[in-house]
Amino acid sequence: MKLFETIVLGCIVFFMGAFLVYGLIEQYPQQVLAFPFTVSALSALFALIRIVEIKLGRHPLQESESLKTVNEGDVSFINSYIFILMILPPLWLLGFELGIPLYILVFCLYFRIRWLTSLSVSLVSYAFIALVFNGILGARLPRGILLPMFV
Amino acid sequence: MWSNIIDGLGLFSSWQALSAVLIAIPIGLIFGILPGLSGLTALAILIPFVYGMEPFVGLAFLIAAHAVTTTSGALPSILLGIPGTPPSAATVIDGYPLSKQGRGGYASGAALASSAIGGVLGCIAFALLIPILQPIILSFGSPETFILMLIGLLFLASVGSGSTWSGLVAGMLGIFLSFFGYEAISGIPRFWMGSEYLLDGLNLIPIALGLFAVPEIIKLIQNGKPIASDSGNRTIAFSDVFLGMRDTVKHWITVVQSALIGIIVGLVPGVGGETAPFVAYGAAKKRSKAPEKFGDGAIEGVIAPESTNNAKEGGALVPTLALGIPGSSGMAVLLGGFIVMGIQPGPEFLRNNADIGVGLAAVLGFSNVLGALLVILFMPYLARVTLIPGRILAPILLMLVVLGAYTTHNSFIDVVFTLFFGLIAIALDKAKLSRAALLLGFVLGAAVERYLNLSLNFHGPGFIFRPITLSIIIVAAVILIFPYITKLARNRP
Questions:
Q1: Domain-by-domain residue ranges, chain A?
Q2: ipTM, 2 decimals?
């Protein structure tokens, strides 16, 4: 975890540094770059202090903002994140109105939620989008690229 | 002052605001009762839905939902021994033993009554403190506003996860993310790399949703099981609930004492809202005639933390609205909500929108009372929400997240950015870097740069030596250093 924290801190400093170099290449005026430069320099300094703290073994044990009550489960973090990313293809292909209920149905069935429950949740989500977003809020949700080809 | 009060109450009593509050309260109650989905997640998910509303209506919606999360958060603490929200953790100590003795209804009644009374006392404190602070804060110029914003970031960094230095790095990253797009004073675009999306700057909503909602969805998918097993004692008799409420009134000194602790803790940015209920619990135990009962089911042990929890929200709104300094992660996200509604909290807010402040105080008090009443009426049904498996909740929440991300600017890129910031949030969490500090840095970034430029242009580099600016710096330094000094003094043999 020490190594991971150091890598993340390093990435943050690198990210800011890279954009400053980009700003210099693009020849932004000094007034536009002065404050970003100050912020980046301070970040680098604070990150360096923290890295020294880590090397010295000072790890303040404070509670994170996230809750600790939910136990680690049987699905890895990477797989969970992939399940979340999997919502993008149906949204892009079928749009929000059909893509989201379909995603919910497949998601629930994959995790062995009962057929009836999965279908009910999926239908309720369809009704929610149709009533609240299309009806009440009047949102213009995209229909995806596949649907206009056939309908 | 009187005109502000009348205008504020007028805003609160409009049908749009009342409808928004009535819709927000059940939503907030459900978020509060589900462990893992705190008021913070509720705010992040709900902010996109207020986009386009009237400023007061949208803010009333957010504040009402956020205020009642701690009210219903008491239920799983008492009935299941699992805190619904982090501040409800202290309620478990005596609430759960009472539930195991078959007195869950009694403990719940006391918790809800003390939540409602504490919430109302917090809102009264908020309404009283704003007019007192107003003349002082109205004398602030751009140098003072700039310093206050920097101090806000510093306070949040000091209470975030991990070390203060990590919190500061996260805050600086947040400020840096606000640099994309047009610079406020010169109008010159920066770091946009030829992308029209970046030309307008990064949007707040994808960042807030990614940082605070996506990680919770990942946890729900990982865990999968219902948050509560069916073993909890959820049998509740209404007569027990009313007995608990009656006993709360009997222990009114504990209620008031705990509410005052909550208000004071809320007022001081950086103390951290999660600690307040434990402080109140300790104080209640100290003044109790039977301190030995604490931990085995003393009713004061339920009343004290619950009164504090709801009272501190009123206290915490004072620095958030009057100074633009959020004292907790929740208030940092709420600050984002204000920005979305086109309102910048701080001295400008008191100058131009004092009526909104009064109206929000009324929303806070009303939500606390109505929230408690609704929980009493629907307690058995609300407790059942904890039986929904995480893997059913996860796609439902994801639906709200993607719809919220898309509909604010009708941009699919916002959805992609939301998921990307979810990944960033996980990395930050694992590296003990404060997500709230990052969000606050982003929210304040543009204003910090603007006020710095204005201060330099009008007062030169010596602006920090202006008497008011210097006084603010000294007061902030004392508040920041004080905990370390007391810790050192305590450790001395």
A1: 1-74, 86-151
A2: 0.90
